[in-house]
Structures
1.
Amino acid sequence: MKIDKTTANKFISVYQAFLLDLFLLYEKDDPEITVVERMVIARSRFSSNPSLFKSFIKNNQEIEVPAEICSAIQGIEFGRWVYLKDTKSYSVMLKDDGSIGYGVLGLTDRIRDIVGKPAIAIETGIMKINGRFVCDGLIIALAGIGPNYKREFNQLYKELKEKNNFKIKDSATA
């Protein structure tokens, strides 16, 4: 339930360089802040100003960015999600407002391997790579979901599937 290693590594290389560069543009370089923390802080700034990636590409033309990776980063959907459960081929992620859901793959690890268990509210980014929905790998666990909420989200999952608002593959490339 993760994408191929080559694509994952290409994405990580560009995304990490972008976020760390962005962090240093706006934040004080503090050795106490870990690389992941720096990336999460920068991602928050990026989510409120998506044009920052275009500026990064323009100012770092020596970095080779494949079109698919560029498109994925520019199209990341940031927000709060409910990681509900796993199927054999993807993790079920529902937007916390119930508007849409995706069958999501991990970059280098399954979502479960990162957060420990399903039925948890998280903050992360989901993007399209090679026609599939993929988590950006930076996950902030917000809260566990109790049994009543879990039942409600399972019902929502069924409703989203019935209304074709649960997507496993990007219909534009599938």
2.
Amino acid sequence: MRHPVSAEIHELSAEDARRAEGLRGYFVETHGHRPSESLIAAALANSSAAAGLTDLADPSVRMVFADAGQEPALQLQGAGDHIQWELTLARQGHLAIALAWPGRRGRPGALSAILDAGGASPTWVSGGQAGNRGGDSVHVLRVVGAPAGRYLLTVTAEAVARAPQPFALVVSGPVAGLALA
């Protein structure tokens, strides 16, 4: 059984620009993190994907992120290079995952993401470029009704025009943890 998945195309609008400024403040003030442009693009896309999927008043719904634009150790060095995280869901729920990377450093389809529950559980693979937001390539992934448990989330460089390849990943849902695997 596969989880229902949808991809959306996002363009930068005036409203997104206002939201981007708010997100910059959020990351700095709440997390003490100066976000890369890719993290802003991923967070904007993630919030659009999560709209209507999650109850934001539910305390088990969290947003977690990785920002390789600001953490060089996470950047991918060439085709085939990958990085993995263990994603733990506290309960069954909906996931919104956004992966963004600078368009000038990689072409559309340069990165891909795989969410694997292992064993008999379904594997979900992102398909192609979901859109472009302010010069960043963005994949937007939604998994409806993901069971509680551990997942392996892998980001792979499919084609890198110029290394290193920075990117940002934002996950929201009933997330109990996200840690490098």
